[in-house]
Amino acid sequence: MALELLIPISLILVLLLLSIKLALFPTKTSDKLPPCPRKLPFIGNLHQIGLLPHQSLHKLSKKHGPLMLLQLGQVPTLVVSSSQMAKEILKTHDLIFASRPKVNVADIMLYGSQNMAFSPYGEHWRQMRKIAVTNLLSMKRVQSLHGTMEEQVAHMLSKISDASSSVSPINLSKILFSFTNGMLFRAILGRSFDEEDENKMKFHEMMEETAVLLGGFNVEDYFPSLGWLCSLFGLDDRAKRTSSKWDCVLDQMIEDHVNMNKKGEGEDDDFVDVLLSIQGDPNKEFFLSKDHMKALLLDMLFGGTETGYVTLEWSLAELIRNPKVMKKLQDEVRGKAFGKSMVKQNDLSDMNYLKAFLKEILRLHPPAPLLVPRESMESCRIQGYDIPKKTRVIVNYWAITRDQKIWDSPEELRPERFENNPIDFKGQHNYEYIPFGAGRRMCPAVHYGVTITELALANLVHRFDWKLPDGMVIEDFDMTETHALTVKMKSNLLLVAKPYF
Ligand code: HEM
């Protein structure tokens, strides 16, 4: 029989046998489980996930409530859709839900999930987080990067300025990607990342492929006992190919640092240098292998690049659609930075509308609307329901941002709702505002993320007036979302920039 026929036929046979087994011998439990929408044999509720899971899960929760236990293939998955239930998971039972589920692609791409973001809860995760927070993401380290951040913003502004003289609109998605990626490279490697690097290494392509692989609802993760399915769908091979490209890049980066340090040329203060010194310290109780280093570097690149540029992209898109908000923001920034060619970090402290605007963007367009999945390490009870051990947990923050009981006209852009409002990014209010997650696994880079985004945004509206491309009207502007590692705009953001001075 031809191989092309053998694969689908064997797949159908296995599906059939498993469906019969499930129908004849359903798993019995005396537990009181949360409600579950009607499921199909074998796939359970997988068909209800759709291309934009935050939206489809929100719709399901309207019918079945803020705690639903879906059966995604073989994996029971708790979906949490209210601030009250989010508080149960991220505060009351934070320790029980502090682990991450096993993700096949992450195992391939992140050296056996030895990074921080996908690592199960435990000593290894704790050490990786400590290294990243102490040496790159702490408030003190971020402050020491202020000068570098200003340089990188100036570089982005000059690129936009050059492009603004052309008749065609500017592809801002590309420029914003290079900016956030370039800033992380500077912080991590201590050297700039320029167009030549991009052309040589194709980072944008590699990052997009990685985002799709790591962020997708991959079928294999929902059928762990059918590992061979992976090879049928070709996902294993795609992940291995992309992973080997990253591995070459990282090996080269580390080798360059080792060579520079040998020659005494390194400045000895970037993140790779710090990692090398931890590795070479015989007194450290934690052994940092080369794979650990590479996994942590990828965490910083993957965690920081997409979230940053996507936030800036949604910000400009919303400003173009809301001219009154654009004017109010420009008035504030241009007033406070009057006469300056560039807004600097220390000008930002009293730009209250800018801060409120960024908060509103992270409510309306959270880059990670489902946060990052958790997994229960023990069984527990929530609101009278039994949650078994090893249940996957998705907190649908997006559903919380659309809750009319919390937010007035939740679909509208209204930065004013955050003015004179004590709510911050720590998520400790009533768990209604958690764009960075909360609890032990909360994003460790809130300070870095907010600082760089505020600085970039202030300068983008200070330096330029923005317009839609000629012939386009607001109604044509495409705000369609696409879901990968983050939720971003499906189409590239194309705008016309007119220098203000
Ligand atoms: C606007 C910017 C950002 C947003 C909205 C964001 C959002 C998030 C969210 C929602 C989580 C999951 C938290 C949870 O499970 O409760 C997370 C985790 C994480 N983020 Fe961020 N992030 C941003 C920027 C960054 C940056 C700049 C970096 C690195 C340089 C980063 C690195 C990470 C890492 C490593 C984790 C995993 C933490 C762990 O598992 O212990 N993020 N982020």
From TrEMBL:
InterPro entries: Cyt_P450, Cyt_P450_CS, Cyt_P450_E_grp-I, Cyt_P450_sf. It comes from the Eukaryota. Keywords: Heme, Iron, Metal-binding, Monooxygenase, Oxidoreductase. Transmembrane segments: none annotated. The keyword Glycosyltransferase does not apply. Belongs to the cytochrome P450 family. This is Cytochrome P450 71A1-like. CDD domains: CYP71-like. Pfam families: p450. One of its GO terms (molecular function) is oxidoreductase activity, acting on paired donors, with incorporation or reduction of molecular oxygen. Heme binds at C443. The gene is LOC120275424. The keyword tRNA-binding does not apply. Its cofactor is heme.
